Amino acid sequence: MVKWHFHFLQLLRLPGALAAALAAGACNVSPAPQSTGGAQLDGGSSTCERGVVVVTSDYTSTNIVISKLDGTTESQSFVSSGATKPGLALALSGDVDVPSTAPASKRVVLIDRYGTNVLTWLDLASAKVLAQLPVGTGFQANPHDYIEVDAARAFVSRYGTNPAPGAQAFDQGGDLLILDTTKPAIVGRIAMPEDDPGLQPCPDAMTWLGGEVVVSLGRWAPDFSRTGDGRLVAVSPATGAVNWKLDVPGLQACGRLALSPSGKLAAVACSSKLDMSTHQYDPKGSDIVVYDATVTPPKELRRLGVGKKLDSGLQPTIAFATEDAIFALTYGGNAMPNDAAYAISATTGEVTPLAQSEKAYAFGGMHCAPGCGDVCLLADAQRNKLRRWQISTDGRFDALDDVDLDHVVGLPPRTIGGL
Amino acid sequence: MFFKTLSPVLFENGKCYWMEGQFNGLLRFGLDDLRHQDSSNAGPVNLLVQGVIPISSSALKFYDYNIYAIQRIDFQYGTPELNQAFQDVYDFVPIKPMFRYEGSGWQHARLPIDGLAKYDLLLQRFAMMPASRHKQPYIIFFDGFLFANWVDGLIAYERAGQGYVIPYNVGRARVAGAELLGALAFTKIVRAEVAATFLDPRDTSPGRTTINDILPFRSRLIASPRLRADWKRASPRGVSGLGGEMRMLYQASRYVDPAGLGVIDEQATFDVDAYVSWFDGLLTVRGRVADVFDARRTDIIGYPLPGRSAYFGLEATW
User: What single-letter DSSP state applies at residue A52?
Assistant: First the structure.
């Protein structure tokens, strides 16, 4: 009788333990996908970039894809939020951007924005992290853009303003941080001007214009209840001085100054202030302004009247596809519920529809490479693809096949930066 | 074998239809112990063991365009007296599984409610059972649910960019799993138990772009084995009870984001507690050490949970 009980228990114990061990092992989730490695892109030239960096994100986590200028993928998961085992944070947050101007150092630079406030430099060929630098200095600095001004220095635009500065060095915010990129380290700051005491400068996207860095200022109240008219300021990399400022009267929430391939024309798109209750933009405050970029400061040539014509708010990012054709996007929510893409003549303001999404906030980053393959790319988060157009010499946009970005992570594309 | 219940129900409440059915059947089995048969003690007690297995205890529920499928599995092994107790309890407690993933999104390896109730009643019967010639050296108890749920509009949780956890809507999901309770009472004092929740939560939304389809913040296995001892006696003047427990909580690794890029590793903690009661339970002193081995544990990346900690309590009950 006793022996019978002993055998029964033994039989019960063995498979139970085995099943428990198997179950525990099998029930763990798979680790995050490994990096697909670096990319070998052509060396580029003084006028052509080598490729593009595509940020794919659901605003929770991020995957970085490296592509050629024509949009074909070179590395499906160059680096991602799963690059390291999470300690106190993920390797990359869900709010990551890339510089709008290709870094001259040929490194990949990632801007981890609000909540993280960290810059990351990576080697393109190996996908190795070269350095990281926190630029928060004790507050939500919200870095928005990065531009290398010489072999050892870079500017970082910090959108946030510190309401209680003075606790540590360089903690005022609303400025351009000056970085020593060889260490890397913060070595100085350039305060952005704001004459309205109720507004903060909110420095945003940067671009080269001649030998100066032009910064667009968002000019928002701290609670985003009010915004000032658009403003561009030019900073001398040599002296750090603000050389000039250029207001964009009557238009708000302006983006980066875009330059035509010859550098003779410049244009800026302004979105207007979003009405938070109706989720609509004011077309009267949204337009594209074209400037003569051969004079300093640039002289306004014309306004294209696109906001009113399309009854929509323009997205602040635009790009010249040719000397005349501007690749532009509108937000959904006004005349139509969806985002839309257009080719707009910088001379006549003639609008050519190119694409529409089926949902709002589906179209995001864009990139055009005039004279370097002549392909314009558009990040379409709804299709989870890059849309592409081949630009002919007469400025016609011919749609190419969409490009699948990756089959490793699958996050939708949001922004595109140059390499 | 007999079938006990068949109860399909169809309700209409506005635009919401739901139907529920429960189908129960019991299979009894027995094994004669001929070696212990004698003329003075004939009848059912001659059975060495007698088991009861509910062979079918199923429910299929349609509610608000979501589908729930539930299959219950029970098994108890012991003497005829205990099996009668089991059947009584089985009659008493209806099928009622827990769909915890629909609520806060947090999982705990708690025992299924009705399984626990049955088990507690069985233990009470076991403790009250008089010693007999056919000694009851142990009881084995098993209770479980298999379930599957196809649901629209599930609320899941993900890590926000700012580091905290926020809810989000999953267009369509399929959650399948099992809740299990296994127990072995060695004696009337010592028993071992394992509760486990297996889960396979998948995002089946048509527009999902991510390669990963496992829903975040849901471990696919949470298990909690424990070894417990309770000794009690009627003693109005002295020590009336002693007891203690060792238990472990194991959580398999889980994602923190829909893309499956952030992973919280598998983690386990080990707790011990003990108590002493005096004067028929009038006064009780309890002590507990949580996370004895000081294992690092987190539910949210960036917010580690407390490590080893000790608790002490004094209770008076009257």
Answer: E
> In the prediction, which pLDDT does B12 show?
40
Distance from CA of A64 to the nearest CA of B (A): 12
Average pLDDT of span A223-229: 92
**Chain centroid to CA A119: how far?**
13
pLDDT of B10 higher than 80: no
Structure tokens at A133: 């630098």
Closest CA to B94 of B136, B140, B54, B51: B54
Chain B (173-192) residues lying within 8 Å, Cβ to Cβ, of chain A: 182, 184
Which residue has tokens 């109706």?
Answer: A278
pLDDT for the residue B21: 45
Residue B4 burial (10 A CB sphere; 0-12, 13-18, 19+): middle
Residue in B267, B265, B255 with CA at minimum distance from that of residue B291: B267
Percent of chain A with pLDDT over 90: 79
* Contact assessment for residue A58 and residue B258, using Cβ atoms and an 8 Å cutoff: yes
Within 10 A of A228 (CB to CB), how many other CB atoms are there?
Answer: 23
Distances (CA, A) of A136 to A116, A156, A157, A159, A287: 8, 11, 12, 11, 33
pLDDT digits (tens, 9 = 90+) for A268-279: 999 998 887 888
Residues in chain B: 318
Of the pLDDT bands very low, low, confident and very high (cuts 50, 70, 90), residue A334 is confident
User: What one-character DSSP code corresponds to residue A254?
Assistant: B
Identity of the amino acid at A334: N
b (16+ CB within 10 A) / e for B96-106: ebbebbeeebe
Mutation site, A10, A28, A112, interface B, largest B CB count within 10 A: A28
Q: Would you list which residues of chain A are within 8 Å, Cβ to Cβ, of chain B?
A: 5, 12, 16, 20, 23-24, 27-33, 58-63, 80-82, 85-90, 93-95, 114-115, 384, 407-412
List, in sequence order, every residue forming a beta bridge with A352; answer none if it has no partner: A343
| Residue B308 confidence (pLDDT) | 94
**Residue A5 φ then ψ, to 5°:** -65, -40
Number of other CB atoms surrounding residue B269 within 10 Å: 21
Q: Are B171 and B205 in contact (CB under 8 A)?
A: yes
**Radius of gyration, alpha carbons of chain A:** 24
Q: What is the pTM of this model?
A: 0.80
Residue A403 contacts residue A370 (beta carbons within 8 Å): no
Q: How many CB atoms lie within 10 A of CB A326?
A: 26
Q: What is the mean pLDDT of residues B23-51?
A: 42
Average pLDDT over residues A74-85: 89
ipTM value: 0.83
Q: Which of B36, B141, B261 to mutate to test the interface with A (most CBs of A within 10 A)?
A: B261
Q: Looking at the predicted structure, is the pLDDT value of residue A241 above 80?
A: yes
Q: Helix B113-128 crosses helix B80-92 at what angle (to 10 degrees)?
A: 150
R_g of chain B computed on alpha carbons: 23
pLDDT of residue A17: 52
Say if residue B109's pLDDT is above 70: no
Q: How far apart are alpha carbons B146 and B175 in whole angstroms?
A: 11
The dihedral region occupied by A223, where left means phi > 0, alpha psi between -120 and 50, and beta the remainder, is: alpha
The C-alpha atoms of residue B171 and residue A296 are separated, in whole angstroms, by 53
Other C-beta atoms lying within 10 Å of the C-beta of residue B117: 16
Report the distance separating Cα B71 and Cα A168, nearest Å.
Answer: 62
Residue showing tokens 């479980």: B144
What is the distance of C-alpha A69 from the center of its chain?
16
β-strand A319-320 against A413-418: which pairing, if any? unpaired
- Check whether B36 has a pLDDT greater than 70: no
